[in-house]
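Student: Please help interpret what follows.
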Amino acid sequence: MVAGLSVVAAVFLTGFKLVIGILTGSLGILSEAMHSGLDLLAAVITWFAVMISDMPADQNHQYGHGKIENLSALIETILLLVTCIWIVYEAFSRLISGNTHIEVTIWSYIVVISSILIDISRSRALSRVAEKYNSQALEADALHFSTDIWSSAVVLLGLICAGFGYHLADSVAALGVAIIVTYVSIRLGRRAIDALLDKAPLSMHRQITGILENSEDICSYHDLRVRTSGADHFVDVTIHVDPGLSITEAHQVSHRVEELICRNISRCVVQVHYEPDGE
């Protein structure tokens, strides 16, 4: 539901910014419209990704469909970088040519301030749900809307300066938008690539290590492996138990370790292999 509402918000913001940007000739607002247009595409991708990622595992996708969330985040990164290239090109073209005059109206301020208010609302809602359901796709969407807050603030500053006759500030503000978007894109892209390449999340690895080291049921452990797939986490570890335990007792120990990890990490699938200590 929250992903669907983000699509509606993105449609409204894109259309509103595009109309006002064309009427005023503001590159800052047009760059924001372009940014919001790709946010719309990203929101649609996120909406589909969230629906697909929760589908149960099947014969062809035995670890589930969670990677679709990471893939969607990578696609969003590429879209954002394309936006930055266009914004930088257009801003430098205007600065070099000197064609920086824009018409600042009350609607220029209305569209930017409305955008900031809507972006704050959507960013908070998406972040809250992303944290609750451990969804990277929703987190990426929240990052998009939070980026819009800062970029819209930069555009608002450019409009205020243009209102006092400093029309050059609009193109400079557009470059500011490009810098912000590029920074967020690189951050988002690195996380998406790490997840697609099964890079172990360091904080989670440390958390599980702490759980295992504080467990009184096991003598030692090795071959701890952690990977993420969308909102799900997969943990594999081999534990050493007292060699005097029966198979049933050793299995109970491994089951307790699995439950302990799952209680501390949401949406976690744990596989524990046990061996007698000393082997």
Remarks:
- The first strand starts at residue 220 and ends at 229.
- Residues 67-97 form the longest helix (31 residues).
- The domain at 2-196 is CATH 1.20.1510.10 (Alpha-lytic protease prodomain-like).
- The mean pLDDT is 81.
